[in-house]
Amino acid sequence: MARERELLILEDNPYGLLRYEGELLPTLYSLDGGGLAQAPGSAGRAAPFVMYLGTFSKILSPGIRLGWVVAPPPVLEKIKVGKQAADLCTSTLSQLMVQAYFEQGHWGEYVGSLTGLYRRRRDTMLDALADHFPPQAEWTRPAGGLFIWATLPDFIDTTDLLARALRENVAFVPGSAAYLDGRGHSSMRLNFSGSNEEEIREGIRRVGKVIEEQVALFGTLTGTAQAPARRSEPEAPAGTEPGARVLPMPRRGDAGRRAGSQ
Amino acid sequence: MSRVAVLKGGRSLERQVSLRSGARVEDALARLGHEVVSVDVGLDLIRRLREAQPDVAFVALHGRDGEDGTVQELLEILDVPYTGSGVLACVCAMDKVLTKHLMVEAGIPTPEFFAFSETAFRDLGAAEALPAIEERLSFPIVVKPSSQGSALGVKFAATAAEVPAALVSAFSYDPKVLLERHVPGRELAVSVLDGEPLPVVEAVPRDDHFYDFESRYDIGATDFVCPAELPEGVTERVQEMAVSTYRLLGLAGFGRVDLMLDSGDGKPYVLEANPIPGLTDTSLLPQAADAAGIGFDSLVERLLELAEARPAAA
Q1: How high is the pLDDT of residue B209?
Q2: What does pTM read for this prediction?
Q3: Which residues in chain A have their CB less than 8 angstroms from residue B122's CB?
Q4: Residues with pLDDT less than 70, chain A
Q5: Active site residues of B
Q6: Which residue has the higher pLDDT, A21 or B102?
Q7: B277 CB contacts (<8 Å, ≥6 apart)?
């Protein structure tokens, strides 16, 4: 479509190399005939319609604030002008350090170890979700990246839920932040890269408890009394397929587990 | 010249707004030649204040802890004079339900409302009273938490089916919520400085949206008109209502009273009072002061003087 209509695509791909299952997905840049944009430092054939953004923040260190751009020379010229005006150029010292690091050629092993670490954290979070989120919730099982996208019952607004979760010292990104038109209000983006496995389990447990309180309150308000009992046993299959969906199940009333007003 | 501790930030949901208010106050204080001690309110608050020994504290906090009397109570204990209202006024103003009950009692018009705690629904089956309430208030109904500022957690329910979710949202912020008759019309704010009303500000949303948290603090999302162009007598009337509310709650130094001018009956209704109005560059009180010829630096200086002049509470 881009070729047909001569549209330029800006491909921003910070997470592409963090893949937990299957092969790396081809970049739009490579589909457009560009060569090897994903590997840091490689200069391949230019793609006519796709400009590529890469970053070292997810494969080396976020604090380094370095990335790379592959784009046609006229675009690069403009980017240079803009960047120079914005930050008077990136530190040469950190650029040289990153160059030296990648010249050693071990970056692939490091990304491999990160991938293993993040895969374990993802799996921990998926298990915790199955244990602690209510049966009406559903969530993705990402094959890459750093986030799980969970969707709660429609009556929960995750922006407001966040206010409650913050009192339990747990944060997430409300789903509406991913849309411009007000959608995503009952979804949330959960990050599994920044906390260790124990913290992930505890964090999901706390968010799950808050959600459970809201589900119970809603049940009380609507007279449906759908106070959820904790899943009696974790549903092992939950989350074993992409976009795993946990179906709502009838629950017995449980007056003792309603929302506390504290 | 005084040594002024600017209290800002904290852990409330309005932290970011408070940081902006505080930074702006600090700049003004520096221009005025005061010594500024910047305090991001946290666990070390008492220690920081004891170390700094400020002559006065400028409370630029919004929301929980800062605006609800908590920090004021601590400042009383430390015997540090502070800007704005005392403990009791903060406690009253931060609680919309209490404020509205007091207004009803004092004869200040405020939209009809019903307030509930979470326990009322949980333990007393208050949900069964919802249809009666809905009939009384008629749709749309505004559902809001009792204590939050900046429109956090405020929802409009257009139908009965939307009420439960709106309540769940409001209860996310506070164990007490209120259901209020929606007043369609113009949004007005009257800031009060030392008991005197400033020019009325009207908030005119750019699109048809409710004046929410983000449009409040994003330049360009809302147009502000100050002084608001109002029918004859209305300016005086809303200023009088604002001052009555300010006095009723015992606010001191400054405050901002938010009202709706009902497009139906043409009458103004008080929604709430803010004991520590925003002081950011898009906030209403500084705009109103500006329209009255009081620049931001003079405003800050005036608040300091009032704080230092106020006798310490018993």
Answers
A1: 52
A2: 0.78
A3: 217, 220, 258-259, 261
A4: 35-46, 225-262
A5: 14, 150, 217, 256, 258, 272, 274, 278
A6: B102
A7: B191, B254, B255, B256, B283, B284, B285
